[in-house]
Amino acid sequence: MKKILFITAVLSLSFLSCRKEKEKTLELTPAGETLTYVQLDAPYYFPQAIFQSDNLLSKEGIALGRRLYYDSILSNTGKSCSSCHSQSLAFTDPISNSMPHMNLAWNSKFLWNGGVEGTLENAMDFEVNIFFNTNVSKLNNSTIYPALFKKVFGTTTISSKEIAYALAQFIRTQTSYNSKLDKYLKHEIMLSPSELSGFVIYNSEKGDCFHCHSLGLFNDDSYHNIGIDSIFSGVKLGRYNVTHNPNDIGKFKTPSLRNVELTAPYMHDGRFLTLEEVIEHYNTKVKKSSTLDPILTKPSHEFGLQLSIPQKADLLAFLKTLTDTTFIHNSELSAP
To answer: Residue 169: which H helix or E strand, with range?
Structure first.
């Protein structure tokens, strides 16, 4: 009974600031007559999505972005966005260790060190112009793309801006919120005793996971030093390499834990191959430094979380409830 009361209290606190309707719809105002404008739906426990007013979602724009996402025409090396973002792995890749393309409509910080901030349009501008260094002339000389871009953006000459905008439209639709936990939160199913125990550990001071991986998106769209290193140089400097602020040394963007069962390896450098290793890091192996996150410096965490073997197993069971099989099998997100 105490465990049930605790879970109820956690949910009440977590959702206090959320809208109370079962599902919220983000209203968009159509800006033209020829396109079919659509809305982006999300559960009531998601925050407000981030849009650009000059890039409204349309079926045609999403379809164009989807085609580009899977087309190697964007790169000069024969790769596409999908080369590093595989749908079966929640749109990430174990070799490149790319951050998942998942629920990014609710994010304003991108890349492990936050090298791009703003909207998805800003992130895709980086991908097109810097990462891929796209040869736009190839799209303008294509037999299919000029007509598609003209319909969506009304332009007869394709530029990197329109490419980025189309990609942003498609990536906004890469939404995941149909996991076992989501069904539990919507009172459709129950979790097992082990999963419920893990839920309590996750959302209490015992595990302290919820501070950075809060219910809903399961990330906080921010940066933290979580103690995987105590000596920093090169890429290990993290956010510091962008801001040059000493307070940012060793900080990296919080990844979402949704579909975390599918997104190994873990951490910015992929050093942990399993979730068991990740849990053990927080349990006994956090390394101290001047920028270590305050959550990890609490007196109760002086020697790590010190979870028992059964508690670690319960936490792992809970993390696996975040796997969304409908997301990785959604035909609308697969190659056209």
So the answer is: helix 160-172
